[in-house]
Amino acid sequence: MARSRSSSSIRWRYVNPAYYLKRPKRLALLFMAFVFVSFFVWDRQTLVREHEEELSKLKEEMERLQNELGELTQEGGVSVKKINTTTKRTDLTKMDSFVPDPIETQRREKVKDAMVHAWTSYEKYAWGHDELQPQSKNGVDSFGGLGATLIDSLDTLYIMGLDDEFQRAKEWVANTLDFNKNYDASVFETTIRVVGGLLSAYDLSGDNVFLEKAKDIADRLLPAWNTPSGIPYNIINLAHGNAHNPGWTGGDSILADSGTEQLEFIALSQRTGDPKYQQKVENVILELNKTFPADGLLPIYINPHRGTTSHSTITFGAMGDSFYEYLLKVWIQGNKTAEVKHYREMWETSMKGLLSLVRRTAPSSFTYISEKIGNSLIDKMDELACFAPGMIALGSSGYGPADSTKFLNLAEELAWTCYNFYQSTPTKLAGENYFFHSGQDMSVGTSWNILRPETVESLFYLWRLTGNKTYQDWGWNIFQAFEKNSRVEAGYVGLKDVNTGVKDNMMQSFFLAETLKYLYLLFSPPSVISLDEWVFNTEAHPLKIVPRLGLGLGLGSKQHKQPPTTTTRLRARREGRFGGT
């Protein structure tokens, strides 16, 4: 009689290895079960670990936001705590998901080499002076001896990673720069180059010496706004504070010179917590908006006593250009909130007026922006007006889909014209302005080239906003033309005539501040000085986008009010058409 097995012995046989060695199918099933359980346990542990890491990051972010909120305490409706805008260098060089293109890398290094050549020549022959004369190898003080090239170059050096050069320049700013000069300075030029350059260096490096120097020079400029209308005088003595307008304007202030300080002075108020800078420059816009025309186009001369315009040229070129640029960019700087809505509204009104100036040539159908005096159009366009394609592209994202496409297309058409300003001359460098005649397309007017940046600026914006590498190729062609015609032993010079190639003897400070910077960024990843986080002043100095001070200077009100509790980041790309970074 067979002996029956106990239930206990039956259960234990499943843990005996010999049982499975005799039954390979069950061994395989057991192995599969083991693998499944192992993966399940490992995956759960991974999820828990990732969850804990995510909670830790969220906790850190919450603490950071709570600290920032604590800093935004109010006194009389105005934030009295300065806003931290500093950025680590890693923020400038992060690649995200951007895949480096070897051609772009090579081109970017060539532009950097050009900056090194320009800068070392300035250091050697013109250190501390405003500008270098490369042919005679000496420095000149075109702006009263404020070290214009040095200050204009600070952020370019930082962005390009030229750390030793940046440190030497910083030491000069800290130990030698002195604004107490008996010199009649241009409020406009000093603001965009010096105030803008110092604030950008502060935002990038976090070194407080730049902020203190920016405050010093801005305080010396402030008396220029002490006019009956608040429209500033355009010239001021830096030592004595005496302000006036140039004689050749008939006592009037210039539109661009009076409406191109907003970005810098608003930024200074944000960073110091002192509202006086922002109040002065925002009052200018409120005054101009009282009589803002239906087409949004203002003549270039304004009476500083009455705040009214004088009969003069309407142009997106010299003396008009950056007024329109800053209407858009203050809206961006202000996080596109309700408090800066009137800037956008004024800019859109001006864009309707711009459309009335747009004309096309025959036979090649080049699109250009004409000028206007009274009711008469003048078929002329400055190279300075070639900033407009970039501005229009940058602002196109604020429209609905139909208008957004219309204005982006216009920007691309204008950029093609500006590129042909360069391609149409023997040197492949653009003249100062162009005239358009029926059946003849375009002809160069004033034929000098002084290393201006406006066309490459627009190419930079269009590449960033569309991803079209054609704009990089155009920029590279322009850079090669500068290398061929303007590079000399001791820096870069302009041309007296783009037809003959005869050279002048000046390396303009904006060549280092703007032209080379925009070319470098044209071949850099979009995350380097992201348009989501920075706004460029008209001298190409990037300023960090941060919360506005709530001064309550909106239309129809001058009462202080609390700043907005929420802000939005700049989104300069349209969904679907504009790619992200």
Automatic annotation (TrEMBL):
Its protein name is alpha-1,2-Mannosidase
Q: Which residues bind Ca(2+)?
A: 538
Protein function: Class I alpha-mannosidase essential for early N-glycan processing. Progressively trims alpha-1,2-linked mannose residues. Produces Man(5)GlcNAc(2) from Man(8)GlcNAc(2), but only Man(6)GlcNAc(2) from Man(9)GlcNAc(2). Has difficulty acting on the terminal mannose of the b-branch. Involved in root development and cell wall biosynthesis.
Q: Name one GO cellular component term.
A: endoplasmic reticulum
Q: Where in the cell is it found?
A: Endomembrane system; Golgi apparatus membrane
Q: Which UniProt keywords apply?
A: Calcium, Coiled coil, Disulfide bond, Glycoprotein, Glycosidase, Golgi apparatus, Hydrolase, Magnesium, Manganese, Membrane, Metal-binding, Signal-anchor, Transmembrane, Transmembrane helix
Where is the region Disordered? 556-581
User: Which cofactor does this sequence's record say it needs?
Assistant: Mg(2+); Ca(2+); Mn(2+)
Q: Which GO terms describe its molecular function?
A: calcium ion binding; mannosyl-oligosaccharide 1,2-alpha-mannosidase activity
One Pfam family in the UniProt entry: Glyco_hydro_47
Catalysis: reaction(s): N(4)-(alpha-D-Man-(1->2)-alpha-D-Man-(1->2)-alpha-D-Man-(1->3)-[alpha-D-Man-(1->2)-alpha-D-Man-(1->3)-[alpha-D-Man-(1->2)-alpha-D-Man-(1->6)]-alpha-D-Man-(1->6)]-beta-D-Man-(1->4)-beta-D-GlcNAc-(1->4)-beta-D-GlcNAc)-L-asparaginyl-[protein] (N-glucan mannose isomer 9A1,2,3B1,2,3) + 4 H2O = N(4)-(alpha-D-Man-(1->3)-[alpha-D-Man-(1->3)-[alpha-D-Man-(1->6)]-alpha-D-Man-(1->6)]-beta-D-Man-(1->4)-beta-D-GlcNAc-(1->4)-beta-D-GlcNAc)-L-asparaginyl-[protein] (N-glucan mannose isomer 5A1,2) + 4 beta-D-mannose; N(4)-(alpha-D-Man-(1->2)-alpha-D-Man-(1->2)-alpha-D-Man-(1->3)-[alpha-D-Man-(1->3)-[alpha-D-Man-(1->2)-alpha-D-Man-(1->6)]-alpha-D-Man-(1->6)]-beta-D-Man-(1->4)-beta-D-GlcNAc-(1->4)-beta-D-GlcNAc)-L-asparaginyl-[protein] (N-glucan mannose isomer 8A1,2,3B1,3) + 3 H2O = N(4)-(alpha-D-Man-(1->3)-[alpha-D-Man-(1->3)-[alpha-D-Man-(1->6)]-alpha-D-Man-(1->6)]-beta-D-Man-(1->4)-beta-D-GlcNAc-(1->4)-beta-D-GlcNAc)-L-asparaginyl-[protein] (N-glucan mannose isomer 5A1,2) + 3 beta-D-mannose
Q: Which coarse location class describes where this protein primarily resides?
A: membrane
Top-tier EC class: hydrolase
Topology class, membrane: Single-pass type II membrane protein; Single-pass membrane protein
Q: Which domain of life is it from?
A: Eukaryota
